[in-house]
Amino acid sequence: MKKSVKSIVVLVSICAVVSVLLALTNAVTAPIITQNEEKSANAALLEVLPDGGSFEKADITAYTLPATVTDVYLSENGGHVVKLNTTGYSSGMVLMCGINPDGTVSGTKLIASQETPSIGGAAAETYAAAVIGVDVSTAEALDTISGATKTTAAYKNAVRDALNTVIILGGGSVDLRTEEEILADALNEALPAANGAFTKHFFVEVTEGVDAIYFADNGAGAVCVVDTVDGQFIALDDSYTVITACDDTVAVAVKTAVDTVRATTTTALDLTAYAGLPEHLVKAEKTASGNYVMEIKAAGYGITGGDEYHPASGEYIMIRVSVTPDGRVIDCLTLSEEETDGIGSACADETFYGQFDGKTEETYQNIDAISGATLTTDGYKKAILRAFACVKIFEGGNPS
Length: 400
Fold this sequence. Notes:
Blueprint: H1 2-48, E1 55-57, E2 69-75, E3 80-86, E4 93-99, E5 105-112, H2 117-130, H3 149-169, H4 179-190, E6 198-200, E7 210-216, E8 222-226, E9 233-236, H5 248-263, E10 266-268, E11 281-287, E12 292-298, E13 317-323, E14 329-336, H6 350-353, H7 374-394
Helix pairs in contact: 2-3
């Protein structure tokens, strides 16, 4: 029993001595470790802002900054280093961006990434050199890199966010809204009675002077985007009377466009009654004015010849397109797609499919391809070509 007590006392004494020694060691080494960490951090800051001198972490809690910004460091020379966390092809893309006192990018460094090393990672290294010297007025013009569109687009947006952050910290005003938020706010301002819920109209009739019509989901009216330099939003109430102050010519164009699309009727076509229609045509309708509305399958990435199912998704790109009897696209829309996320999936963006509006069989190929997604682009264009062929068959002409 005495031996057991003695062993316990000895063990406790040893633990106490070790604890004291560890505490003393920590007291000595902790400041050294902190100092080394500060040196490493300062070295990273100097890498993206070489003329920065010393740095001090800024208190950014009082500012509304881009969501990607996590930290900001103020430099001795009046510059800034902004740390950002964004998402490229994968999440966890951490970037340091140095901004000179004159508002130009001094350098960037990707300090953490889950991007594919041989694709996105390599592209990021190349992109780092491309952004040096840009400012807030030139950042938007930066091109993304084919094959790594999502990574380089995220890099570009992070640099833009860093530049905007410096403007905000300097007392300037920056619109941080996305394009979608800007559109939503404009629609809400034009027609508050819609309570923020709108559906964009798919045109099957030709309208002059009106780029888009958004109908209120609750029946409160509609908002037309007029074809003007400033993108004027003209509202109509629930009786479809123009209520936004505007030029008489604009009011007439808006009223005419809305009355036209509201009066439009379509009749489903019996596809079995026509010989030679491509099997990719899913359904077709004809308007009372003689235009055609079709849903067509387009083969995208990895599909030999553009005629077989996607090997991974088993799905075609589904397209809705309206065409006049003489073969001119009125409107185009991607209904669904299963293309590679961040690359071919761009076929679902209006900036891509909207390019086909107004195109004919002679001009439909004159569009900007999706960067890094040649097969998706080619498959989409082949579907549009098939739409022209279908119209010729419906009209009794020769589709070849």
